Amino acid sequence: MTSALQILRLDIGLPLDSGAILSPLEIGYETWGELNATKSNAVLICHALTGDQFVAGPNPVTGQPAWWANLVGPGQIIDTNRYFVICSNVLGGCMGTSGPASIGPDGQPYGLSFPVITIADMVRAQAALIDHLGIDRLFAVIGGSMGGMQVLEWIASRPDRVGAAMPIASAARHSAQNIAFHEVGRQAVMADPDWQGGAYQIKGTKPVKGLSVARMAAHITYLSDAALHRKFGRRLQDRNEVAFGFDADFQIESYLRYQGSRFVDRFDANSYLYITRAMDYFDLAAGFNGRLSDAFTAFKGRACVVSFSSDWHYPPADSRHITRAMIGAGVEVSAFEVETDKGHDAFLLDEPQFHEAMAGFLAASAADQGL
Amino acid sequence: MMKTVSTRADHEIILNAVPQGARVLDVGCGDGVLLQRLKHERNAIVRGMELSQAGVNACVAKGLSVVQGDADLDLALYPDDSFDIVVLSRTIQATRKPEMVLKQMHRIGAKAVVSLPNFGFWQVRLSLLLRGRMPVTEGLPDSWHETENLHLCTLLDFDDLAKQSGFDLESVTRIAAGRASAPSRATSNLLNWLSEEAVFVLKRAGMSAR
Question: How much is the pTM?
Fold first, then answer.
């Protein structure tokens, strides 16, 4: 990996849900702000499926801007003058943390010999990083989409280490519909001959076509019908009439193709398989005899569950399911549904209501925790 | 629902019924005005439930722990005795099943505080008697086809239902023209005539007053 990344190498064996042990463990991570003397101002931000650790600064490898620049930074709602913000690349990722593209013990890229991982494994790796940073308890853990799953996993498995939890546009279990979309994506990758049974790094190929199709399908789930209609409608791309062919006649086709082609430059195809699998396996209640509220009973901090009205990927009903379980567990929970037509992606966009809710929640949590 | 004003007489009475540091659930908490006062003036541990998303959002932006929920359906989520006091201010008349709501409140907290408009108020009775039309008063400002109120009652009616639901009456306070009187120990016929609105402080039957 590029030296521009900050990577922690731990010569520990990380025990995984599958029974495998991953060693060594590398974690690509970034921090912003200063950890205070009592180490009580740390905020862990958990990224989504194709996100990375560059939540508040540009990614030096891809040149992409910070993905939450509108929320995290000096004077922002997650104020780096006040909080010590940590964001790490997830386990199985491809931005410095151990994943299928990393070099395995035999000196070759892991490929499909990388162990299958879970959301809980991602959190284990994050906890190893937090331990390394000498932090006992996080002021807050915040994340959207798959990041929200990690937030929920944190408070279920390490309730004493979290003061405030904010799962955004997320779910306590992956729905059949979401598993279905992920399977379409994985099959697209695996159908690409350049995937080479997962050994494309060794064979010197890259399954760009398959991964690009996977991204196109997934991208549709991040938007909403209304947003697509508003942005593209049935408008044609650089032409006045349909061409009676299979070029990108419509703007929406051209847009999706662009999204797909841009994605393959920055993301590893096998990482995409592993991370989507981890999300599919996520069912927090399963570890608690099917009772989700039991997952939250040990958590004594505050929680704020946020959803977006037009999000059909992680619909508000999924968030309500979390909230109801938290109420039953006696957790101090607030729940906020943002009215928007921007779909799942809204959590990354400028949504003033969402930002107000986060500001209110963080201010109240900081007052609670004496920050 | 009823008209919202910045200083509500029922809020003052509810505040007085809440001891310092109590755990309070406000069902139908609106934009959180009462919750904030309970938090600051009573040092109470406060939570809220509100049906309207706009109300919930306003509360969360203020840092209050409020969830979107329907008193008719979602009170069942709360564990037994998870609060000291459950507040239902100007909400019961808009619920579909007031008796179920009261029974859930009885289960969740040892004490309940309920404020409600009184259909037995003399002006309401007179208006119906003389005009022959559904009353529209300051306390009941919406016409019959626009109101969200489903279950209007008189103080005597509510007194009966509270007792049926397993509560003893600790006090009932009359409000008329926005002013509260001294609390009474019983819901009398006279009180029913003279109250435009009232606040009932209820405790589980068989328990001594706190």
Answer: 0.93
